[in-house]
């Protein structure tokens, strides 16, 4: 399982990469492998507000549709439009090409509640 060590992770299998005042968000390698082939990604619009632990979009695979849960609250400042035409990026490159949204967090402390790569790895290996 591929897990960048400098990212943070949520219990809902999203990753968070801190980029100055903003965070880039996507789903983990573990999540995409559990879902199977991704055929559609639904994301919010730029300017939308997301709230920690609440759905901000969904991914559809050949097996199921899964909600995406915001790991932090804030304003969406960028959306990965490439996923409209290439949802397979989620399977091929979950940490590079398949980032989903960039958020300006409203509460930096929410980031402290997320897991390290080691903690996330421990959680998924217990399942």
UniProtKB/TrEMBL annotation:
Modified residues (N6-lipoyllysine): 63
Tagged with keyword tRNA processing: no
Keyword field: Lipoyl
Cofactor: binding details: Binds 1 lipoyl cofactor covalently.
Keyword GTP-binding: no
GO cellular component, one term: cytosol
Matches recorded under Pfam families: GCV_H
Requisite cofactors: (R)-lipoate
One Gene Ontology term from the biological process aspect of the record: protein lipoylation
Domain Lipoyl-binding: 22-104
CDD domains: GCS_H
HAMAP family assigned to the protein according to its UniProt record, in alphabetical order: GcvH (MF_00272)
Record-stated family: Belongs to the GcvH family.
Description of how the protein assembles with itself and partners: The glycine cleavage system is composed of four proteins: P, T, L and H.
Function: The glycine cleavage system catalyzes the degradation of glycine. The H protein shuttles the methylamine group of glycine from the P protein to the T protein. Is also involved in protein lipoylation via its role as an octanoyl/lipoyl carrier protein intermediate.
Identification of the protein by name: Glycine cleavage system H protein
């Amino acid at each position: 399982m591929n897990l960048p060590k400098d990212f943070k992770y949520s219990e809902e299998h999203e990753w968070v990469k801190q980029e100055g005042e903003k965070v880039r968000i996507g789903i983990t390698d573990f999540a995409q492998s559990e879902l199977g082939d991704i055929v559609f990604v639904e994301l919010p619009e730029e300017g939308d507000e997301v709230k920690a632990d609440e759905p901000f979009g969904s991914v559809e695979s050949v097996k199921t549709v899964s909600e995406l849960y915001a790991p932090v609250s804030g304003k969406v400042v960028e959306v990965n439009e490439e996923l409209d035409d290439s949802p397979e990026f989620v399977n091929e490159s979950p940490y590079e090409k398949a980032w989903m949204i960039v958020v300006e967090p409203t509460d930096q402390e929410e980031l402290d509640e997320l897991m390290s790569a080691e903690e996330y790895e421990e959680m998924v290996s217990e399942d």
